[in-house]
Amino acid sequence: MMKMHSVLFCLSLFTISCSAQFYFHQPVPLPYQQHQYLQYRTSPPDFKPISEPNQEGPPHPSVVANAERESLLPPELSKSRRFYSNPRIAAALAKESLLTPKEMAVIDREAEKIDRNQIYKIFHNAGWA
Question: Where is this region: Disordered (predicted)?
Fold first, then answer.
């Protein structure tokens, strides 16, 4: 009889310790309360249709300079030229990517302020260049 009680006691301790893993510390909402994650704290953003092209201004100077450098590459080094010359892909890439009115394009890039010689020194000292 004593052995049976000790087995039941050990079994109950084991089940209690195992069930503690599945104890959630989150309060259960009452059925009449609204769930906190279903409400917007501010009004939802007004999304513009993606099909409208960007008409806000000229491209960034770095984009123009990069396009000029890529146009000077020979065809064997420009393997993506066939991909980007596809009119459907070009039209899809030209679509507006800024979806909400509060998003803005980056004009002053912090990465452009880093001297290229410093970047080369870092890569050279790391053994990558």
Answer: 43-65
